[in-house]
Amino acid sequence: MRDWKRYVRERLPLPETKGTSDDSVVEELAGQFEDLYLEALERGATQDEAEAYAVEGMGDWGALAEEIVRAGDVRMVSGAERWLERTEARARARGGGWTRLADLERDVRFSLRTLRKSPGFTLVALLTLALGIGAVTTIFSLIDGVLLKPLPYADSDELVYMWEKLASFENAMVTYPNFLDWRERNRVFEDLAAFNDGSINLTESGDPLELDVVRVSASMFPILRAEPLLGRTFLPAEDKLGGERVVVLAYGFWQDRFGGDPGVIGRSLTLDGNPYTVIGVMARDFEFPVRGDLERIDVFVAIEQFAENWIDNRGSHPGIAVIGRFAPGVTLERARQDMERVALELEAEYPDTNEGSRVHVASLHERMTRNLREPMMLLLLAVSLLLLIACTNVANLVLARGAVRQREIAIRTSLGANGPRIVRLLLTESLALWVLGGLVGIAFAHGATRALLALRGDQLAPVFQVGIDARVVAATLAVTLLTGLVFGLMPALRSLRPDLVEHLKEGARSSGGVGRNRLRSALVVVEVGLAVALLIAAGLTVRSFVKMMKASPGFDPENVLSVEINLPTARYPEVIQRTAFYHELLDRVRAIPGVRSAATSYVLPMAPGGWQNSFHVEGEPPEQSGVYTIAEVSSVSTDYFQTMGIPLLRGREFTRADGQDAPLVVIVDATLAERYWPNDDPIGKRLKTGDYSSDSPWREVVGVVGHVKLNGVVREALPQWYMPHWQDNDDAYFLTVKTAGDPTRLIEPIRQAVLAIDPAQPIAEVNTMTAYVGASTADGRFMAILLGSFAAAALLLAAVGIYGVMAQATAERGHEIGVRIALGATGGEVLGMVVRQGMARVILGVILGLALAVAIGRLMAGSLFGVSALDPATFVAAPLFLSAVALAASLVPARRAMRLDPVRALYLVT
Amino acid sequence: MFSSQLKKGSVELLILSILDDQPRHGYQIGKLIELRSGGRLRFRVSSLYPILCRMEKKGWIEGRWVEKAGQRRRRYYRLTAGGQAALAEEQRTWVEFAAAVNQVIGLSHA
Fold first, then answer.
1. Would you state the pLDDT for residue A511?
2. Which of A104, A242, A637, A757 could form a disulfide with A725 if both were Cys (CB 3.0 to 4.6 A apart)?
3. What is the 3-state secondary structure (H, E, C) of A478-543?
4. Residue-wise pLDDT tens digits, A664-675
5. pLDDT in tens, A888-897
6. Over 60: is that where the pLDDT of B54 sits?
7. Is residue A201 scored above 60 in pLDDT?
8. Among all residues of chain B, which has the CA nearest to that of A409?
9. Residue B109 binned pLDDT confidence (cut-offs 50, 70, 90)
10. What string of DSSP letters covers B34-101?
11. What is the dihedral of CA A774, A775, A776, A777, to 10 degrees?
């Protein structure tokens, strides 16, 4: 017999069919020729006669091809399908085990074709899945980059972060002498390194510049296994008081300042007035693990060169933390035990300073992610719920389609396709849908991750590498296949059972069957439950954020500008020089038009830096020596409280008369006054820093001001007291300026005022107080935006799901409703019946959702501000809102049922 | 054979009628037209196939590959809802047209 396909292919001049092995146009035409040929054979014709009969009068092939093209039936076979077709043919030709692969490919090809044939269904299902999977992928990429991936240092699981625990203060920075003793006495670490951060002024040609600096022990880079790109890092001999002044540049600074010039090694930089020799440049991908308050790190210097004031002062905690690396085989537990031993030794040797003092040892990675773990897990939970809702919706869609395809499946079964074969086909169809959804979802997540980083990237230290990489894609595909398998198997298995008995019982030709409806109802219940839980979680977060926005920080940030001015000790060694500088600065700034008031302060609320100090109130010695009460301290100039809008409750502000030779005075905040003198007038009372019995002087309270939320509106702050700037003169101060209009317009005049006094003095940390306050609520806003959008998506999906199921169920009950109407049921009764049926499922779902929300609320409690995790308003409003949406969704089919013409309904169904 | 004289629209009416009761594949459609017309209407593959394509494009019929045990797969066409409506409309037009023609040529009276 002739190869009819080849016959057609050779003659039919369709460009699209050339080269494709199995095009359907060719196949169909060939089939018809073959039928004609066989028919002739049956009639008794010879082979040649039969062939002649089949091709008789075929006529013009070109015209046929033209007609076909015009009819537009040369279907767009996608590249994927064509590829599958080719490999399928190849696999089938090989035979044996390859046949299975060929079968799979045929199923996939068939699935793709089926999906393409119902574009509406496919589009809705794909978008739904892409939304769910995309959201999960986005959050997972965040979690993977931050929590799961190891830090970018060799054997990073051996790295630890250490800080101190004091008798009266849980988390304290490390004193330098303690660090030196830890380093010497421990038996578990390969080495330890101390570091703190700060700023250093670069003066060369051009405007002076304040650089962000990290001071590190010489052992730091070897511990991190970080090799410099150029030159070398610090030698132990350089990390000493009076050691040779050398500096290592960060890659970014080297690029910006020196254009990446490799000849920079050996050059000299003037930092804080001293010459430093550049000895090395770090690699581009090197990130120092802890950034602290720094925006970016410009240079590294050796820490001990700056230790003049702390090297033998065990009471001073100059912002130092310690990084270490385990010796081989050491565990965290063993390291903690060993450091406990060291702490006890030091306690015995230095009871004055080290009584009750211990060492915190944590894995570096854990320490860096401690504030991120909980919100990220909450987000993962939220997107998982969203994904489940999306999957439920699509499973519902597939089920509804299954009802329509019942006939196709019945035909297949009767044609000999067995159960497993049909399940496999339907499952392949679902999986194809899920995988396509997953791919679209990954593309979606690619954009979403970037948007997310833009929204809150500043919160993530650059050591975390967040993005859609192979790991994330693999995890996404795993989740996709798993959910596709679970949610695809459900309708596939359901299609296998035609519910024959129930069909008969029902008596009507319902296209679904009770079993299918029960499954779909169950899916709606689950979906509503998940949506309620997500809605409540989002509601709590949004309410918490609103509370944050409304909460007063204790000062008025409106129209206040702040800049940091760091006077280098090298050029301003004497207090009198620094005082003169600030006096002149304040005089000049106050004279700038548009300035309402100006002040200086050592600490600025919500800005980098801080100063906590122990103190005692006169007449209240501690029950046990070595126990301190800690307060937030600042030293501020005249007009500070007025400039910041902090209310003066009693007494007076500081004046210039409160100078070095004047009596020592302080201003306390309302919290401190309330705690120590609840029944007395605090004015005239006295307090001192340090030990009660120490010889530090008593300071007299001259005023009481309002409490300020120093650490942002969300976090509680310790009691506070203030010293006059002129009685505690440090070298780095914030200048704050209250302006009449837009405060940023005064940045340049202020810079000019500074340069007029000292042309080598830079200003830094230029910011408005509203920006600081905004940054302190950024986490809340981030969570509110994210959870809010997830909940909105969930609400939309749930509404669509409820509508779909209700519409289907109502349509299937058309016969019954027709009978009821024929028997005299009013429209209202029908409406009520349908809505009741729908809302019964919704109520079940709401109950499920409330239970789920209680569990989630428990996880969220820590991150909520001013809202209980069981906030009654949210727990009532969220289910009500969802029920209202569900009601609206079920009203549409209910009204359709109400208007049903009974005659038509009965006719249609029987 | 009258086939060549039939208007294209009339062929579509024939196909719609053939598919009214059950789905059929291309060869069957051709054979049934031949059979029901007592052999007077015959269509070549080359004329029938493009019409099927066009009708599918219009959404009147829907083709679907069906595999039967022991046979090669065939493309079965069936009427869609649109096809059903088109069939009713074409039938009405045809009856009116035939009546008008008969009236004109004097075979019947109004």
1. 45
2. A637
3. HHHHHHHHHHHHHHHHHHHCCCHHHHHHHCCCCCCCHHHHHHHHHHHHHHHHHHHHHHHHHHHHHH
4. 999 999 999 998
5. 877 887 777 7
6. yes
7. yes
8. B66
9. low
10. HHHTTTS----HHHHHHHHHHHHHHTSEEEEEE--TTS--EEEEEE-HHHHHHHHHHHHHHHHHHHHH
11. 60
Cβ count near A421 (within 10 Å): 14
Interatomic CA distance for residues A2 and A11, integer angstroms: 14
- The one-character DSSP state at A702 is E
Q: Is A97 exposed, middle or buried (0-12, 13-18, 19+ CB in 10 A)?
A: exposed
pLDDT digits (tens, 9 = 90+) for A61-79: 777 777 666 655 444 445 6
Q: What is the mean pLDDT of residues A234-239?
A: 95
Is residue A630 within 8 A of residue A613, CB to CB? The reply is: yes
* A411 min Cα distance to partner chain B (Å): 10
Question: What pLDDT, on a 0 to 100 scale, did the predictor assign at position A475?
Answer: 92
| Contact yes or no for A31 and B25 at CB 8 A | yes
Name the strand (E) or helix (H) holding A279. Answer: strand A274-282
CA nearest A130: which of A427, A483, A502, A401?
A483
Distance in angstroms (rounded) separating the CA atoms of residues A568 and A306: 13
Residue A909's nearest CA partner among A406, A402, A407, A508 is A508
Measure CB to CB from residue B53 to each of A27, A63, A71 and give the nearest one: A71
| Best residue in B8, B25, B32, B45 for a mutation probing chain A (most A CBs within 10 Å) | B45
Contact: B54, A71; criterion CB under 8 Å = yes
d(CA A182, CA A343): 8
Query: Alpha helix locations (H) across A611-694?
Result: 640-644, 670-676
A720-724/A629-636 β-pairing: parallel
pLDDT bracket for residue A560 (50, 70, 90): very high
Interface predicted TM-score (ipTM) over 0.95:
no
Which chain B residue lies closest to A60 (C-alpha atoms)? B46
Residue of B nearest to A35 (CA): B27
Alpha helices in A813-868 (DSSP H): 814-822, 827-860
Does residue A275 carry a pLDDT above 60? yes
Q: How, if at all, do strands A159-166 and A321-326 pair?
A: antiparallel
Contact A589, A757 (CB under 8 A): no
Q: What is the pLDDT of residues A781-816, one digit of tens each?
A: 888 888 888 888 888 888 887 777 777 777 777 777
When CB atoms are compared, the residue of B30, B46, B50 closest to A58 is B46
Strand order in the sheet with B74-79: B24-25, B74-79, B61-66
Whole-angstrom Cα Rg for chain A: 38
